[in-house]
Amino acid sequence: MESRRKRKSSQIFKWVCYTLLMLLCTVLQTMPGLFQLGAAKPLYLLPLALAVSVFEGEFAGAIFGAVCGLMWDYTAGRTVGMLALELMILSFAVSAVVQLYLKDTAQNFLLIAAGCAVLVLACDWLFFYYMPGYSGAWNRFLWFVLPSAVLSIPVSLPIYWAARKISIEFKIDNGVV
Fold first, then answer.
1. What is the pLDDT of residues 164-175, one digit of tens each?
2. Is the pLDDT of residue 24 over 70?
3. Structural domain boundaries enclosing 74
């Protein structure tokens, strides 16, 4: 059983580590030409928000997802709030689904991350390309949305492992067996 001070400092260190990981993912996601295939680039902040929500629960995961979404909105130079709202809802839903229905395995996480990447990118494409009536919107879907979702799969695994390592390292021992 740990003291209250040790538990509090452990939780602070854990969230500092998650924040540093978020900053690293933000830098990697905004770095020009890094792992780029045509116009498509992998997503880093989405798998991080989902991984943290899997390990930390619905409420903390939703808040962290919203912060990741705000960071993504800010660095993409877009209207602030759309991705924050999407990531908050997805983080909450993924955390609930993993706790209730799925085993916490890397394979399940990769499938969830790929599905969420397609969902987020397709919503973005729908509202910003298809509905305004841009010519070549379907080309954008085929050559940007789908390849970006596929490129996000391999980067999701190290992010999942890093979030898992942080969660295990700073787990609270409350003395219950």
1. 999 998 887 655
2. yes
3. 1-176
